[in-house]
Amino acid sequence: MFWLRKFWIIILVLVVDVFRAKVYAVPAKPCRILLDTDVDTDDFFALLYLLKLNRSEFELEVKLFSCIFYDILYMMGRDDIAVGVGGEGGILEDGTILPNVGGYLPIIEQGMTTAGGCRYRQAIPVGLRGRLDFDTNYGIRKSFLPQGSRKYSPLKQPTAQQVMIEKTSAGPITVFVTGAHTNFAVFLRKNPHLKRNIEHIYVMGGGVRSNNPTGCCPKHGTPHCHPRQCGDPGNLFTDYNTNPYAEFNIFGDPFAAYQVFHSGIPVTLVSLDATNTIPITEEFFKAFEQSQWTYEAQYCFKSLKMARDTWFDDRFYTSYFMWDSFTSGVAVSIMRNYGKNNGENEFAEMEYMNISVVTSNEPYGICDGSNPLFDGLHFPKFKLNKSGLHSGHVQMGLRDPFCFVENGKGKCKDGYTEEGTGPDSVRVLVATKAKPNHDLTSKLNREFFTNFLDVLNRPENTARFNLTTEFPHFRQAFYEPDFKNRTLGKPVVFDMDMSAGDFMALFYLLKVPVELLNLKAILVSPTGWPNAAAIDIVYDLLHMMGRDDIPVGLGDVFAMSQSDQIFHLVGDCKYAKAIPHGSGGFLDSDTIYGLARDLPRSPRRMCIL
Ligand SMILES: *[C@@H]1O[C@H](CO)[C@@H](O)[C@H](O)[C@H]1NC(C)=O
Ligand SMILES: *[C@@H]1O[C@H](CO)[C@@H](O)[C@H](O)[C@H]1NC(C)=O
Ligand SMILES: *[C@@H]1O[C@H](CO)[C@@H](O)[C@H](O)[C@H]1NC(C)=O
Ligand SMILES: *[C@@H]1O[C@H](CO)[C@@H](O)[C@H](O)[C@H]1NC(C)=O
Ligand SMILES: *[C@@H]1O[C@H](CO)[C@@H](O)[C@H](O)[C@H]1NC(C)=O
């Protein structure tokens, strides 16, 4: 999916054994898959799709970090799957990569800590319709997913790099990358000897010959309509004024994507070229609504419906595409055909193209303060060529004056998977188009739509859980104390973030007799130590204390004047960049050191409708 994560580092390793015994009457040769993804709605679709595949053919192992994924794996009865989180290591000035690099920051900005800026990430909305929604899965997670016993615990959590090393060392493996490429690229640079175990890389991301079909004016529209990202190769709907070329996953870390594409390992790319041809149609949405025979199908449908119901305009059906789920389908289908016949598969048309990932803009060899790989360094990092293609201007953020073109499309190409003929490009198999449904009588116009619904609704590998039957005594209670006969003390509003001191203070305030202090409301400030989704934890704390009556308000997600002038949902992280993403920072505050999982769950939740 095209969202990349702010700080949850998700590496999903699916080890899939595809028994090929049917064709060759020889013992089956296992085919293992490592999935490196992020956590948007479509990522869940991809994960569940892969988890649903025949388990006697596919043996799965997953590595990732996100409480949501823990819950999904628990629901699917897969607590055996390993989970890795970003470590605390860094990259030295000379380019030496220390073990256990966190992967919280793009490679070019990775220093010795997990704190840092947001030059690429700031294209992603932080609040509503952005990370807030994805981190809570629109609030659906709390009501629908059962909660397993696994949680993030500092010191015990294996790092993403450790898990990747372990899984790749074990034997041949295929990698799916459906988020930003940071972790995988760091792994490849750090462990070149393990490259030989990687058979193939499937990537969701980039746009090569794509024309964005969204942000266009209706054919017979009003004369006042200004086309937006319409026709762009990329999909940065928040940032096409500077960069109409990039797609979100690659834009998350262009330098990392370059490393992956140029690693020498064969790459198949499912780019916007193909995903633009498989929008979620109204017919598909209706068909999905009517075929929810498993718990996981219900969960996916609920998420999709929430995405639709909260869409910012009335063009959901032409703006929301199958990204990661489609990629999983295409990749699995190619693998079933043993990767032969130039990627022939059931769901997409394929074509070889020579492409490269743009990491900096021409002219090269300038030192204008935008490029941490060269600026101020006696020797460029990673021994890079001082006048090579990594040495130009690197996009600094939204409305970077270098890239910004007044009243026009921007000129920066950072993250563009550009077609080229020179020695800098690599031959990549690219999905160009989703195949139409071979059943012409079906209302579903894409072959993959039918397969997706079919797989999700299979009775095999289904969720073990049904909250109604498994927990017959479970009921959701809303606790509201009765203060009728008591004289209430001073009314107080508490404005907090989520460092340890804050929630201890909250408990303290709740313990003070109401005759003395009457806590009227809590405000959560996501400009400081928590992420906006931490509001869910505050709800749970209050629930535990029997105070579901106290309203909780979500503060502004941007510090003053950090929100973008043109597109208010995105903005800079000038102050927040001082807060580390890893241990001692967001990772701990957003999970209260993993303890948040032990809280009872409040029926209240982040709910945006
Ligand atoms: C799963 O695959 C195995 C081995 O190919 C096969 O015997 C079995 O019937 C399959 N199960 C289902 C439910 O299709
Ligand atoms: C859970 O079980 C109840 C009772 O058998 C049933 O009505 C309900 O549809 C089931 N829910 C799901 C999600 O399968
Ligand atoms: C890609 O490059 C190879 C040689 O590097 C060349 O033979 C081939 O024709 C090129 N393909 C395209 C589509 O440009
Ligand atoms: C560095 O890059 C320039 C420009 O692309 C090229 O002409 C030169 O040969 C490269 N030098 C090395 C040592 O690769
Ligand atoms: C409040 O006071 C009234 C009258 O003294 C009494 O009947 C009632 O039970 C009290 N309510 C509570 C919740 O204590």
From TrEMBL:
<feature type="signal peptide">
    <location>
        <begin position="1"/>
        <end position="25"/>
    </location>
</feature>
<dbReference type="InterPro" id="IPR036452">
    <property type="entry name" value="Ribo_hydro-like"/>
</dbReference>
<feature type="domain" description="Inosine/uridine-preferring nucleoside hydrolase">
    <location>
        <begin position="33"/>
        <end position="361"/>
    </location>
</feature>
<dbReference type="InterPro" id="IPR001910">
    <property type="entry name" value="Inosine/uridine_hydrolase_dom"/>
</dbReference>
<comment type="similarity">
    <text>Belongs to the IUNH family.</text>
</comment>
<protein>
    <recommendedName>
        <fullName>Inosine/uridine-preferring nucleoside hydrolase domain-containing protein</fullName>
    </recommendedName>
</protein>
<dbReference type="Pfam" id="PF01156">
    <property type="entry name" value="IU_nuc_hydro"/>
</dbReference>
<keyword id="KW-0732">Signal</keyword>
<dbReference type="GO" id="GO:0016799">
    <property type="term" value="F:hydrolase activity, hydrolyzing N-glycosyl compounds"/>
</dbReference>
